[in-house]
Design goal:
This protein has helices at residues 3-17, 29-46, 50-66. It is mainly α and 67 residues long. The longest helix has 18 residues, at 29-46.
Length: 67
């Protein structure tokens, strides 16, 4: 894969990471499965665990609430 494609993929991942709507509490098994696989994809691309991503999202939400 060339560097430009990797840059585009990482940009999309960053946008998804910042989109709270993608990380809501799943109500149905299908939603939970999709979220699980999305997290696995993010882990592979970012090299971070789901726990690290979750902490980042929570910190962003807390920061946004305090402003």
């Amino acid at each position: 894969m060339n560097k430009e494609k990797i840059k585009i993929i990482k940009g999309i991942v960053k946008e998804q990471t910042d989109n709270d709507a993608l990380w809501f509490d799943a109500q149905y098994a299908t939603e939970a499965y999709l979220q699980q696989e999305l997290r696995r994809l993010h882990e592979a691309i970012e090299g971070k665990s789901s726990k690290e991503c979750a902490i980042k999202i929570i910190n962003n939400q807390l920061t946004n609430q305090s402003t």
